[in-house]
Amino acid sequence: MKQKHILIILLAGALIAVVALVLNGNEAPSAPVAGDTSAEANREGTEDVTATENSSEAGMVATSGEQSAEAPAATEKKDEYAGTHIMPDGTIMMEDGTVLPDAVIQADGTILLTSGAVITPAFDMRKDVEVDEADAAQEVVIDMVGTNFAYDIKQFTVKKGDTVTVNFVSDEGFHDWVVDEFEATTQRVNEGGATSVTFVADEVGRFQYYCSVGSHREQGMVGYLVVEER
To answer: What is the pLDDT of residues 112-148, one digit of tens each?
Structure first.
């Protein structure tokens, strides 16, 4: 009789356990813990920040790329005026012959463009023009001696535009040196005396110089100044 009671009790316990398992299986999943929700939110925030940083980096890279692409254009703009120079008459001209009529030459020699940019000319022909010494007017000095009744130099030649100085010494007698066309006349000096006259030979031709004392000219105290084209 006791064994029967024990069996019934065991069966009842097993049945209760099965019912409990069935009931637990039908219950809704438990809500996530508050701490877990915060962790998930933190993960989402981190992902958003990372995405923003990646976007910023991409923007910076794109901007750098744009600047690099623009750099050659700036260089080309600068090189466009590399051969610009100033002509002897002050005309500002580019290397290809284009004239820049509105550009301005500044006091320091630089060129102010209409765009406001300032460039240094490749060369300034106003400064670079060289005068050929052979074509430049010269200072000519003639040392001449007079006696009764002649000059030791019978003829000398200069170029038009030359400045001529005649240093005259009387070695004998009382004399002077005169050339009318250039209104050049020395003082009259006695033997041993010296005098001089300076003038510009600004006329081409052959001109007689002479002693104006008494009849010395008629007695042959003459010579010739020849002025040639330069």
So the answer is: 888 888 888 887 777 654 545 566 789 999 999 999 9
In a domain, 46, yes or no: no
Structural domain tally of the chain?
2
What pLDDT digit, counting tens, does each position of 2-36 carry? Answer: 566 667 777 777 777 766 676 766 554 554 444 44
> What secondary structure does DSSP assign to the chain, as a single string?
-HHHHHHHHHHHHHHHHHHHHHHHHHSPPPPPPHHHHHHHHHHHHHHHHHHHHHHHHHHHHHHHHHHHHHHHHHHHHHHTTTT-EE-TTS-EE-TTS-B-TT-EE-TTS-EE-TTS-EE--S-BHHHH----TTTS--EEEEEEEEETTEES--EEEEETT-EEEEEEEESSSSB--EEGGGTEEPPPB-TT-EEEEEEE--S-EEEEEE--STTTTTTT-EEEEEEE--
Same structural domain, 148 and 192 = yes
Q: Give the global pTM.
A: 0.45
The two tokens of residue 116 are: 């406001």
166 located within any domain? yes
Q: Does residue 193 fall inside a structural domain? A: yes
